Amino acid sequence: MQRVWLRVALAAGAGLASLVACSGAFVAIFLLFFTVGEYVVGLGKLAPPIFLIGLVTAVLLAAASLSLPALALGARGGHLTKTALLSGLGFCAFVFFLLVSLGGNVAFVLFALMALVATSVIGTLAAIREEGPLTVRLGRATVIAAVAIYCASLLAIWLVRGGEGWLYSLVPVIVASTSWLVLPAIVAALRPG
User: Fold this and answer.
1) How far apart are the first and last CA of the chain?
2) How many CB atoms lie within 10 A of CB 181?
3) If phi over 0 gives left and psi between -120 and 50 gives alpha, with beta otherwise, what is residue 128?
4) Where are the domains of the chain?
């Protein structure tokens, strides 16, 4: 029993580490564009080395961190690379819809939250390679939890819609990002040891 809880804690911790690394990379790239990027656009020249080094480092760290939940769930080799690549595409979709939603369109906010939850679903389900009833059970539990978390993030939009300030706008994203911890933990708990 103690070993199961250790696997669950490891999977949830890997999801949290991945979320923190991807969020940190997003913030670092955002800051690079506003600090060094202004300099680059202003001069109309190629980006200085510090900009390119920072950009490549942030992207590589985010990409590497996306493999952590799948690694904690037992994916290895090329399967781990495919899982990280699919999760990376999901996170890029989240960033795209988040930036587009800054214009005030609510539909893009819904798509951004869906992409954030889908990133963890992809990373969790793509790590499972078993065949048969166990895969169906794990997939069903993961999808039910993902839909519940997405609906909770939609409820959070409705609950904080009258709030002033940027902190209120982060509440639905925080609720949706809990899927990065919960979904790997569910799969680790339901998988046989």
Assistant:
1) 10
2) 19
3) beta
4) 2-190
How far is the C-alpha of 71 from the C-alpha of 65, rounded, in Å? 10
Do 115 and 142 contact (CB within 8 A), yes or no? no
* Cα-based distances in Å from 68 to 21, 35, 47, 55, 121: 10, 30, 31, 21, 14
Give the integer Cα–Cα distance in Å for 145 and 179.
Answer: 8
- Provide the residue type at 46 as one letter: L
**Backbone φ, ψ for residue 163 (5° rounding):** -75, 145
User: Which DSSP letter does residue 67 get?
Assistant: T
- CA distances 190 to 21, 59, 123, Å, are 26, 32, 16
**For the whole model, what pTM was predicted?**
0.84
| pLDDT by 10s per residue, the chain, length 193 | 678 888 899 999 999 999 999 999 988 888 777 776 555 554 445 456 667 777 788 888 888 898 888 888 888 888 788 888 888 899 989 989 988 888 777 888 899 999 999 999 988 888 777 656 777 888 889 999 999 999 999 999 888 876 676 677 788 999 999 999 999 999 888 887 6
